[in-house]
Amino acid sequence: MQISHHHTSIKTADIFRAIAFYEALGFEVTERFSAGITLACWMHGAGTNLELMQVPEPKNIADPFRDEHYVGYYHLSFRVENLEQFLQELVNKVGKLKLLLSPRSQAIGDRTYQVSFIADPDGLPIELIEIKE
Q1: d(CA 130, CA 116)
Q2: pTM attached to this predicted model
Q3: pLDDT band at residue 35, thresholds of 50, 70 and 90?
Q4: DSSP 3-state assignment of 111?
């Protein structure tokens, strides 16, 4: 039996703001639909699919990036060719970014990576990673 990833679903307080953010990351809307009483869409990019669902009455949740005791899905991670350039292009497209972790080198196994974390409009951590060696 084989499985393959189909999509990751993200609940958002403002679907139009979220769509604009993920479009700036290179995703594009492939389907728009309603899910019960809420707006939703599928987006494709970076070799994967996202589902965005607008929450009619959003509530604040724990901060998965800063809370050391948080358990659950932690972040999305996207590989980029040039981290500094990508961040600058993203700022040019969306304006100010919420930077959770400034770019820094990180060794994992026998490779060195340049990593940074930003937040999407609802605070979901997004890791941007560049392979250095």
Answers
A1: 9
A2: 0.90
A3: confident
A4: strand
